[in-house]
Amino acid sequence: MKRRRILPATALALALAATPVWAQVKWDLAAAYPASNFHTENMAQLASEVDKATGGQLKITVHANAALFKAPEIKRAVQGGQVQMGEILLGNFQNEWQIFGIDSLPFLADSYEAAKKLYAAQKPFLEKKLAEQGMLLLYSVAWPPQGIGTKKTLRSAADLRGVKWRTYSPATARLAQLLGAQPVTVQAAELSQALATGVVEATMSSSATGMDNKIYEHLKYYYDTRAWLPKNAVLVNKKAFDALDKPLQQALLKAGTDADARGWSTSTQVNTDTTAKLKAHGMKIVEPPAALRADLARAGESMLKEWIATTGPEGQALIDAYRR
C-alpha cells in the first residue's frame, strides 16, 4: 500500500491542533496620572512583572493620564466590570464612605512613618468595604506630603481668603472653606490648564503633582506644610480576579505586594527629588510661618472632630487603632 506523503504545512497544522493552547488573558488598568508619574511607572512595572511571571498569559495594559476614564469615574468602572483594574485616589471617595478619606485629614499623619501606621489601621476597613463592592485591594501607596503652591507670600490663613484654591477631594474642599479660600475642584490631569487660564490661583498638592503639571510656570512659592500623605490604591474587579487560574492569581498578588513596598520607597525619594526640581525651576520652597501652621492645625482639628462625628463608632475605632 502506497503511503500518502504529508506536506510540511499540513504536518504543522496537525501538530498545532494536537497541542494544548492556553488562552491569553488581556486586562486594562485605568490610571489618572501621566505615564511619567511614579505611581504610573510603578503600575507599568507591575504589569511587566506579571507578564514575565505568567509567561505572557496575563497581559495588563496601563492606560495613563485618564485616557480610559476620568479620575472620579475609575472606581465605578472597576466595580461595574468596565475595566478589570484601576487606580484611584482614596480621598476622592470620602463622600461615599468617610473611611476612604481619613488620610486627607490635615496633620493626623504628616510623615511617612505615621502614614504607614495609619494605612495599617485603615487597611482592614478598606478590604472589607471593597469586598462588599465586588473589588479587591491589590496595593496602596502614599503620595509625597502635601504643600501649598501660591503666587504670593503667605503669613497666615488670612492671606488665602478669597483665593481660588485648587481642591481635588472633599477634604481639600473643606479645608479651603475653613481657611477662607474659594475651593475649585480640579483633578490632576486638568491642573496645568486651570492654572494657565486663571481658573485657580493656588493649589494644595504634592511636589510630584507640582512637577507633573509644571506649576512653576504659574506659581512662585511652594509652602512645604507636609500636611498629609494621601494614598492611591490599585483595585481589581473581583469577578475578573476569580476567573483567573490560580497561578495567574498568585502572580498578580505577588506583583501587588512588591509594588506596594516599591511604591512607598519610591515616594520618599520622589518627594526629595521633585521638591528640588521645583526649586531648580525657580520656585521658592518655604517653611510655613508659625501663624500659617497654627491656622492649618486648627483647621485639621476641626476636620477630625467633624469626621469622627460623621463616621461614629467605626471612625472612632479606626482612630483608636491608629493611635495605639
TrEMBL record:
Identification of the protein by name: C4-dicarboxylate ABC transporter substrate-binding protein
Organism whose genome encodes this protein: Verminephrobacter aporrectodeae subsp. tuberculatae
Taxonomic classification: Bacteria, Pseudomonadati, Pseudomonadota, Betaproteobacteria, Burkholderiales
Domain of life: Bacteria
Ubl conjugation listed as a keyword: no
Residues in the signal sequence: 1-23
Keyword Signal attached: yes
Record key words, sorted: Signal
Any Pfam family the entry gives: DctP
